[in-house]
Hints:
By secondary structure, the chain is mainly β. It has a single domain (21-140), classed as PCu(A)C copper chaperone (Immunoglobulin-like, Sandwich), CATH 2.60.40. It is built from one helix and ten strands; from the N terminus they run H-E-E-E-E-E-E-E-E-E-E. The radius of gyration is 22 Å and the shape is elongated.
Amino acid sequence: xxxxxxxxxxxxxxxxxxxxxxxxxxxxxxxxxxxxxxxxxxxxxxxxxxxxxxxxxxxxxxxxxxxxxxxxxxxxxxxxxxxxxxxxxxxxxxxxxxxxxxxxxxxxxxxxxxxxxxxxxxxxxxxxxxxxxxxxxxxxxxxxxxxxxxxxxxxxxxxxxxxxxx
Length: 166
Ligand SMILES: [Cu+2]
């Protein structure tokens, strides 16, 4: 092969690479639940796996079930009191990694619910990623579900810090 033929062969190889078919982002174990006692807000939890070799970012979420949908996290406001805060910059989904939206942590907040979230209902949610684009998720409502891996007393109380022998 002369140099030109090598270049053509190299170019052909490049173009023969398979086009990335589906979204590089995979959603697992989605579920939604009512938050608080009065039933005007709710949250969606799920696991996001990024199969791409570059970080992605969850930028936004949309749903028709609520007036307003925001990405939230929990922050310790001091004294162990957990407060929810809006995270406008979203959540980084590491390359070839998983980021879980879970109870007591990052979540999709549904504010101003237009309908009651009853067990078995499906909440349709559109997640907006920086690179993967929009991904539609169907999250079943599961109000009875316990917090994953936290069980009771997920917020550990700080006993025993002032232990003294007497
Ligand atoms: Cu929230």
